C-alpha cells in the first residue's frame, strides 16, 4: 500500500511545528519584552504617585533642609530594581537624586520641562533628554499642590534589569509551546492508530483478495466504521472462496460422473464393433449403452438447469393443473426403477383431484428429483410414500423414504449446489449434487417453502408447499 496519506500527515505536522517555532522566535520575545516593559512602567508610575501624595513631598519648599529630609525618605523607596529617583522643582532642575550623596551634585537642568509638568503621569523609554543611558525606563509623576504643579518625581531603571524576567517568561512560553506540540501529537497518534492502521489493513486485505489470496486475515472487529467494510470484504472473500470450492467440487464430480458412462459406452461400442460381443448379446449391451446415454442426458440437463437458474433467475409459466395427475404420471414412469430395488411406491393422496397454481413442468422436475433421491437412497424391500394434504391456502406434498437418512450436521448443506454427502450416502454416486439445489430454487421461485426431516439410519421426509387453486 502506498503511504502518501501518511507522508502528507507527517509533512503537515512538520510544517505546523516549524511554523510554531518560527513564530515563537520572531514574535514571542518582542511581545514578552513589551509586556514586561509596560508592567514595569506601570509599577514605577504607581510608585511615583504614592510618593507624590506623601505630605513631606507635596509640601516641600525645595529648600536645602527639606531636600535633606526627603533624601532618606526616597532612599527607603528605592530598591535593587530602581536605579534612581529624582525630584524636580518648578524650574526643571533636579533638586534631589538618590543616585548622589551630595545634594548639590545632582542639580541638573531638564530641557522642555514644561512638557513634563503638564498633564498626567506617564512613562517613557530612552535616554530622557540625553540625561540617562539609552536603554532606560523612566516614569514621570507631577507633584501637585492644588491647584498648581510644584514639581515632578522621576523614577527610572535600566531596561537591562528586565532581561532575566524576559528570559524566564520566554522560557515558560517555549515550554508551553513544547507542551502544545506534544499534545498535538496525541490526536495524530490517535489518527494513526485508530484510523490509518485499520484503513491500511483493510486496503491490504482488499489487495490480497484481488490477487487471489482469499485467506488473508482481516483485523478484529472493534465496533467502528471499518467493521461493516471489513465484514463486507470478508463476506465477499468467503463467497468467492466458496464459489471456487464449488467449482472445484463441480469439476471433480462432473468429471467422475461423466467418465463412468462414457467409459461404458466406449468400451461396449468397441466390443460390439470388433466382434468381442456376440450378435445374440448385442441387444443387451446396446440397452446398457442407451441407459448410460440417458444418464448422461439427465446429468447434462441438471447442470444446464442449475446454470440457467443461477445466471438469469427463473421464469415461471404459471398455470392451474391437477397435482395428483402429475404425481400419478411420475410414479408410473418410475415403476421400473422401483421394481429393480423391490421398492413399494405408496401414493397416499387426499381424495379427489387437487388443483394448484404453479409451473407444471418445474413442479414435475421437483417431484421427479425428490422421488429419484428417495428410491436411490432407500433400502431394498422398503417403501417410499408420496402424500398430499391441504391446510388453509396451501397444499402440502410429502415424499418419505425408509432409507439411510441424512446425518444431522449435513442437513443444512444438502441444498448447496454440487454438494454430495457421499461419505455417508456413498452407495450411489451417480448424482451431480444439483438435484436438491434445483428443487429448492424452484420452490422458492414460487414463493413457497420446502423442509426436510431426517434421521440417520431411519429415513428422510421432504415436505414442500404449493398454492391451492
TrEMBL record:
<keyword id="KW-0808">Transferase</keyword>
<keyword id="KW-0472">Membrane</keyword>
<dbReference type="GO" id="GO:0016020">
    <property type="term" value="C:membrane"/>
</dbReference>
<keyword id="KW-0418">Kinase</keyword>
<feature type="domain" description="Histidine kinase">
    <location>
        <begin position="253"/>
        <end position="469"/>
    </location>
</feature>
<keyword id="KW-0597">Phosphoprotein</keyword>
<dbReference type="InterPro" id="IPR050736">
    <property type="entry name" value="Sensor_HK_Regulatory"/>
</dbReference>
<dbReference type="Pfam" id="PF02518">
    <property type="entry name" value="HATPase_c"/>
</dbReference>
<dbReference type="InterPro" id="IPR004358">
    <property type="entry name" value="Sig_transdc_His_kin-like_C"/>
</dbReference>
<protein>
    <recommendedName>
        <fullName>histidine kinase</fullName>
        <ecNumber>2.7.13.3</ecNumber>
    </recommendedName>
</protein>
<dbReference type="InterPro" id="IPR036097">
    <property type="entry name" value="HisK_dim/P_sf"/>
</dbReference>
<dbReference type="InterPro" id="IPR003594">
    <property type="entry name" value="HATPase_dom"/>
</dbReference>
<dbReference type="Pfam" id="PF00512">
    <property type="entry name" value="HisKA"/>
</dbReference>
<dbReference type="InterPro" id="IPR036890">
    <property type="entry name" value="HATPase_C_sf"/>
</dbReference>
<keyword id="KW-0812">Transmembrane</keyword>
<dbReference type="Pfam" id="PF00672">
    <property type="entry name" value="HAMP"/>
</dbReference>
<feature type="transmembrane region" description="Helical">
    <location>
        <begin position="169"/>
        <end position="195"/>
    </location>
</feature>
<keyword id="KW-1133">Transmembrane helix</keyword>
<dbReference type="GO" id="GO:0000155">
    <property type="term" value="F:phosphorelay sensor kinase activity"/>
</dbReference>
<dbReference type="InterPro" id="IPR003661">
    <property type="entry name" value="HisK_dim/P_dom"/>
</dbReference>
<dbReference type="InterPro" id="IPR005467">
    <property type="entry name" value="His_kinase_dom"/>
</dbReference>
<keyword id="KW-0902">Two-component regulatory system</keyword>
<dbReference type="InterPro" id="IPR003660">
    <property type="entry name" value="HAMP_dom"/>
</dbReference>
<feature type="domain" description="HAMP">
    <location>
        <begin position="197"/>
        <end position="245"/>
    </location>
</feature>
Amino acid at each position: 500500500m502506498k503511504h502518501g496519506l501518511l507522508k502528507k500527515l507527517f509533512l503537515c505536522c512538520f510544517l505546523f511545528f516549524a511554523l510554531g517555532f518560527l513564530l515563537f522566535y520572531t514574535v514571542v520575545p518582542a511581545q514578552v519584552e513589551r509586556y514586561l516593559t509596560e508592567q514595569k512602567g506601570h509599577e514605577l508610575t504607581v510608585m511615583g504617585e504614592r510618593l507624590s501624595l506623601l505630605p513631606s513631598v507635596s509640601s516641600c519648599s525645595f529648600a536645602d533642609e527639606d531636600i535633606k529630609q526627603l533624601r532618606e525618605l526616597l532612599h527607603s523607596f528605592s530598591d535593587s530594581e530602581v536605579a534612581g529617583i529624582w525630584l524636580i522643582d518648578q524650574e526643571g532642575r533636579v533638586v534631589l537624586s538618590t543616585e548622589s550623596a551630595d545634594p548639590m551634585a545632582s542639580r541638573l537642568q531638564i530641557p522642555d520641562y514644561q512638557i513634563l509638568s503638564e498633564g498626567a503621569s506617564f512613562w517613557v523609554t530612552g535616554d530622557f533628554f540625553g540625561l540617562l543611558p539609552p536603554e532606560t525606563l523612566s516614569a514621570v509623576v507631577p507633584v501637585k499642590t492644588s491647584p498648581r504643579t510644584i514639581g515632578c518625581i522621576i523614577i527610572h531603571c535600566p531596561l537591562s534589569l528586565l532581561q532575566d524576567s524576559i528570559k524566564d517568561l520566554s522560557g515558560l512560553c517555549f515550554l508551553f509551546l513544547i507542551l502544545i506540540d506534544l499534545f498535538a501529537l496525541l490526536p495524530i497518534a490517535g489518527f494513526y492508530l485508530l484510523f490509518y492502521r485499520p484503513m491500511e489493513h483493510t486496503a491490504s486485505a482488499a489487495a490480497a483478495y484481488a490477487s487471489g489470496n482469499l485467506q488473508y486475515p482481516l483485523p478484529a472487529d472493534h465496533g467502528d466504521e471499518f467493521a461493516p467494510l471489513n465484514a463486507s470484504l470478508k463476506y465477499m472473500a468467503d463467497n468467492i472462496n466458496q464459489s471456487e470450492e464449488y467449482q472445484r467440487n463441480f469439476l471433480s464430480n462432473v468429471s467422475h460422473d461423466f467418465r463412468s458412462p462414457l467409459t461404458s459406452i466406449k468400451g461396449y461400442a468397441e466390443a460390439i464393433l470388433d466382434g468381442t460381443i456376440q450378435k445374440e448379446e448385442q441387444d443387451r449391451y446396446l440397452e446398457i449403452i442407451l441407459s448410460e446415454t440417458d444418464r448422461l442426458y439427465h446429468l447434462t440437463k441438471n447442470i444446464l438447469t442449475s446454470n440457467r437458474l443461477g445466471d438469469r433467475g427463473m421464469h415461471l409459466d404459471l398455470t392451474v393443473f391437477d397435482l395428483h395427475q402429475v404425481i400419478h404420471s411420475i410414479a408410473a414412469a418410475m415403476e421400473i426403477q422401483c421394481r429393480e430395488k423391490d421398492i413399494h411406491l405408496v401414493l397416499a393422496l387426499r381424495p379427489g383431484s387437487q388443483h394448484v397454481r404453479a409451473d407444471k413442468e418445474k413442479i414435475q422436475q421437483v417431484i421427479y428429483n425428490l422421488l429419484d433421491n428417495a428410491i436411490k437412497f432407500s433400502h431394498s424391500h422398503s417403501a417410499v410414500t408420496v402424500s398430499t394434504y391441504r391446510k388453509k391456502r396451501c397444499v402440502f406434498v410429502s415424499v418419505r423414504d425408509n432409507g439411510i437418512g441424512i446425518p444431522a450436521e449435513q442437513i443444512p448443506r444438502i441444498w448447496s449446489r454440487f454438494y454430495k454427502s457421499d461419505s455417508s450416502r456413498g452407495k450411489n454416486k451417480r448424482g451431480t449434487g444439483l438435484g436438491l439445489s434445483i428443487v429448492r430454487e424452484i420452490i422458492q421461485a414460487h414463493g413457497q417453502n420446502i423442509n426436510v426431516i431426517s434421521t440417520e439410519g431411519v429415513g428422510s421426509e421432504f415436505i414442500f408447499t404449493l398454492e391451492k387453486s
